[in-house]
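Reviewers of the previous submission asked for a worked example of the structure-prediction workflow described in the proposal, so we include one complete record here. The input consisted solely of the amino acid sequence. No template or homolog information was supplied to the procedure at any stage.
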Amino acid sequence: MKVPRKISIAGHEIAIKHKKGLSVNGQEAWGIWDDDKHIIYLRFGMDKTRKQEILIHEIIHAIDHIHVLNLSERVVKILGVEIVAVIRNNNLKLIEQRKSSVKPKKV
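From that input alone, the workflow returned the following structure tokens.
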């Protein structure tokens, strides 16, 4: 999975960075949403499935913070896992690939 360098949430530009040794309150972390800097940090070395779940989890934290939803960590965790599972288990292709307007040249 290719992770973008930035995303937009509710008009806010959110940077996405990879980092070694993430921790929160002394506990090892897979990802962190930094609401002061509007950065999502992802730990290096995750497998594809974990990376998808953690990225979605941190995006939910960002949405929660921006919209002041006050979601519990339990709800954020469940939503992250289930959203990825629904997409994966149903083979959803939610974004259509843009077709090039340039036609190939005949040789």
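Residues 6-89 form one domain. We consider this example representative of the routine output the project will generate in years two and three.
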